[in-house]
Amino acid sequence: MHLIMNELNSEYLRDIMNSCANKTEEVLAAVAYATPGATLFDWCLSNKIPLRFYGRLDDNIAVSTSILDKFLIKKSPNFQCRLVRYHHAKVIWWRGAGIYIGSANLTDSAWTKNIEVGCYFSEEEISDAMTNDILGMFNVLEEKSRELSDELLSMMKQREKYINTSKPKSDSFWKHSSLMKCPCFVSPGVKSASSQKRDIFLKEWYATLQDLRDIGVKVGLPENRPSWIDPSVPPGAQADQFLHAYYDQRTFDGRNANYESHYEKNKIQKNDALLEAIDWWRNIPSAPSGIDEMLHHTVPTLKELLSKDSLEKLTYERFKDICSGVWSIKSYSRRVPKKAVGLKDDKQYTDSERIEALSKHIWQDRSSGGLSVQKLLLHILYGGPDDQLPERLWQAVAEKKWKVGGLGISSLGELVGWALPDKFPPRNGRTSKALRSLGYDATIHVA
Fold it and tell me: Can you list the domains of the chain with their CATH numbers?
């Protein structure tokens, strides 16, 4: 974690932003005020990094019209702007790199001269709870926002022109036809914030689960299955590796996976996009790197290791074997801070050494309720009816009684899939990005 205080501690947002260029997949920015001189917009454009920006909508023109012009001129699904009433947040998420939460607006003064205070968390430091809260905030901003249009910009330019030369009535701005029935925030209902978050998670998870099942059925058909996949491979596992290959080979533009651009293109024709992707998949002459090994050897091994009988007799060595076969855990082992898993900061480690360190950390950790990872996995997978498994998954992510360190929603969603691939196809962050690129409205979780 970095404390960003400009001259007070010589830590500047601009330096943080520039260090994120090679890791960032997209930028989500919820910053109330933006004026000419703000560098984030040009930085995203020059680095070809997708941006979704939520600025403040008010009669004092919180976001300069010269900035709004850029969005309408660009006309790109990778460069989007929406405006929101009663919005005062300052949050910038360089997804894949880290997130800033603080006081700085998108102004040159805020980034270089003002006394500002904020914190930057690397992606490895962002917890599941924090991810859910921040994604929830962006979902609310999206729901309550007004899309930028030529009419809205024209009206805002008129307001900006006269704001310093006259004092029009404060309510005249809101009577413009482009702002009629403008969404605004309302008081929370009877449900608690935690209950609302749970409901949002479960609604999206169940919907995406069904999408994955449907895709599994389609790619598992004999006429759609590549010749190098054995018919005995579970459809859910085939869906996972199909999406894995599609994400790796069909969504990248250089170093960036432009899944948001694909989403905007495919969201109204997702069936056509899926059929085209399946046609590409069935005609691949040989397995992309590692996929045949995964489907024919790792998948059955994981299924056996995660069976109820095996989990009841689980040892550390067998748990390490599980971690070594799960993509999300292996990926996280390369990102987790070394000190967090007992490794030395000044030493380089192999992938196998990092996986072993993370496996040992998870194995030794206990939830606040005293539960081990063994008890947690037994609870999620076999602790009740199958149709309530996503609810137990939510408990493992959101409730301290159940949460074990080092296991986020991507790792747990994938573990569930390898244990029960016929009922719950594996799902991790890469799966969600692939789904989104095909036009599905899937939420992308970090860990």
Answer: 2-179 (3.30.870.10), 193-437 (no CATH)
